[in-house]
Amino acid sequence: MIKKLSIAAVVVMVLALAAVLLFRRASGPSDAAMLVPGDTIFFASFVDLPRSFLRWQGTSLARVGKEPEVKAFLEKPLSNLMSSGGADEAGKILIGLKPGRIFVAVTGVTTERLDALVGFQYWGGRKDFDEAVARMRRELPPGQTTSETHGGEEILSSQHGKFAVFTATHGRWGFVSTSGDLIKSALDRAAGNQATPALAANPRFLEVSKRMLGTPDFAFFLQPQKAIDVLLETGRSLGAESVPEQVEALRSTEAVGGSLKLDGELQRDAVFVLRKSPKPTDALTHKTARFTAADTIVFVDFLARFGGSSALLEKALAGTAPQSSVVELAELATAACGPECAIVVNWGTGQMAPTGVLAVEVRDQAKAADALKKLISLFPETHIVEEEGIKLYSIPSVSNPLVSPTLALTDQFLILGIDPASVSKAARSEGASLEGLPAFAAAVPAYRSANELFAFIDTRSLFERAYAALRPVILFGVQVMPGAADIIDTGKLPQTETIARHLPPVILSQQRLEEGVLLESSGPVTVSQLAIAAAAGGVLSAPKSR
Fold first, then answer.
1. Is the bond preceding 339 in cis, omega lying within 30 degrees of 0?
2. Is the backbone of residue 286 left (phi > 0), alpha (psi -120 to 50) or beta?
3. Which residues make Cβ contacts (< 8 Å) with residue 308, sequence separation at least 6?
4. pLDDT (tens digit, 9 = 90+) per residue, 387-435?
5. String of b and e for 89-103 (b: at least 16 CB within 10 Å)?
6. pLDDT tens for residues 71-118?
7. Which of 200, 320, 461, 522 could form a disulfide with 268 if both were Cys (CB 3.0 to 4.6 A apart)?
């Protein structure tokens, strides 16, 4: 009896293994990096959308969105956003396709064309894929559609002005491309018939992958060399002048990779720049933490290498009257200061606005004193006040009712602030620093590992102060802006604590390694996301040329 059960178990296992192999062969590879060529310039992938959806539910931002007060406040703007029929149609397409993975790859770029491939693993039916592709083509300028067969799969192509669109599917993978050769290559790789190496076997891709987060939700990879010449050519056509040092630095970068992971309440990301070079001798000592306090909401500790700054300044100021004096000042400051610097922003409860200082390490006290004398010679109206042995230098000509730039020189640091009080407080290093506070505990591992850059944002305190200051502005703005009341219901503005209690700090660390530079960030949003949002906001707010 036992023998029969054993034989039956073996048979079941063999059948199960065969079913898995047949299923994987039919659906194609699960790793999207196996579907694109090894010399791909840019590759980005949403690794597992269903898993990411489940992970998202536990993030701090999702928890904020689930708060009854927040849901009530968002009800009106969301209803306006979803009122268009396009949103419903897009939702139906996604529900039908049931996408599991999505990737975008750019394999060739010139000033005339872009060879790109979009692939998505879907668990819906072929009919849903065809409907999604047809809907996409309807959004493009009208074009003639033709078909051909490759490896037993049909490729539909359509011409839309100067560019073409190719679509095809194999197993559970659907592809959209601007290149017929590229989509054929993707079909071959999905069927396991491509002989040339895939990106998954690229040595640079493998090297960068070692530094990425495990089981990420999103990842990207960039090999910039092939695109640099195109960017330079485009810049020259627009009249831009390239800086040789910057071009050389770009060419020395072999690859850049990044990954994002939804990890409990946090979003985490890692970005690695593969650029092999000797590890610098300078490293963060973290002695700038002395300038922080219990009400510090932003602390950035970083290395600033000032070499060459005076030459760049001389070039930028060519032809201006005070050029020689300003360049001389920059040379003195460069010789006297660095490399460790810090930015500290404090915002106490009840204060209308934040205050802050920039602290720069002093390596040569005599040259730092000479630089300060040179600055005073350029601004003879400089006002000097001594408090408890510390001289504060203020320049009335660059001051206004809101800001009064002030300098102080201590035995180790040059301190610049927006008002005398903040500079005086930082110079005396009074009170407890940020290091011993509970809000900073989560940042300690990143703080200790960073050797080039560390940043900490007390997101909760920042939101509490900013929301309290902006709430009256929002209430007034909705009353005077036409149409704003149709979008925002000010009577349902959430209470401060409703949102603030879900906001962990934002943390950033940067390490210089022999293989390259590694940046890691975490928080309710990451520093990379904040940078992208700021860049997008700058583009949208930039004046449009007529």
1. yes
2. left
3. 245
4. 888 899 998 888 888 889 999 999 899 999 999 999 998 888 766 788 8
5. eeeebeebbebbbbb
6. 999 888 887 766 655 556 667 777 778 889 999 999 988 877 889 999
7. 522
pLDDT higher than 50, residue 546 = no
**The two structure tokens encoding residue 260:** 């994002």
pLDDT for 436 beyond 90: no
Q: Which helix (H) or strand (E) holds 478?
A: helix 459-480
CA 48 centroid distance within chain: 20
Contact criterion met (CB below 8 Å) for 376 and 393: yes
Long-range contacts of 122-130 (CB under 8 A, 24+ apart): 122/97, 122/98, 122/172, 122/173, 122/174, 123/97, 123/98, 123/99, 123/172, 124/96, 124/97, 124/98, 125/96, 126/169, 128/93, 128/96, 128/97, 128/98, 129/97, 129/169, 129/174
User: Which of 31-35, 190-194, 536-540 holds the top average pLDDT?
Assistant: 31-35
- Indicate the residue type of 317: L
What is the DSSP code string of 408-466?
EE-SSEEEEESSHHHHHHHHHT-S--GGGSGGGGGGHHHHHH-SSEEEEE-HHHHHHHH
222, 44 Cβ separation under 8 angstroms: no
DSSP 129: H
Residues of the chain with CATH 3.40.1000: 26-82+95-199
Crossing angle of helices 365-378 and 323-336, rounded to 10°: 160
Q: What is the pLDDT of residues 264-293, one digit of tens each?
A: 999 999 999 999 877 778 899 999 999 998
| Under 8 Å between Cβ of 194 and 188 | yes
Which residues make Cβ contacts (< 8 Å) with residue 144, sequence separation at least 6?
158, 159
How far is it, in rounded angstroms, from Cα 207 to Cα 273?
10
- Please give the angle made by the CA atoms of 377, 381 and 385, to the nearest 5 degrees: 100
Task: Record the tokens describing residue 196, joined without a space.
Answer: 């040339």
**Chain centre distance of CA 344:** 22
Q: Please name the residues in contact with 179: beta carbons below 8 A apart, sequence gap of 6 or more.
A: 107, 108, 115, 116, 117, 166
Query: CB atoms < 10 A from the CB of 262, how many?
Result: 22
Cα separations in angstroms, 4 against 12, 14, 17, 113: 12, 15, 20, 65
Note the pLDDT tens digit of each residue in 178-199: 999 999 999 999 999 887 899 9
**The CATH number of domain 26-82+95-199, selected from 1.10.10, 2.130.10, 3.40.50, 3.40.1000:** 3.40.1000
Q: How many residues in the chain?
A: 546
**pLDDT number for residue 8:** 46
First to last CA, the chain: 87
Average pLDDT over residues 145-172: 91
Q: Which residue has the higher pLDDT, 299 or 138?
A: 299
Question: What are the CB-based long-range contacts (under 8 Å, 24+) for 482-488?
Answer: 486/76, 486/80, 487/76, 487/77, 487/80, 488/76, 488/77
Residue 13: phi and psi, rounded to 5, are -65, -45
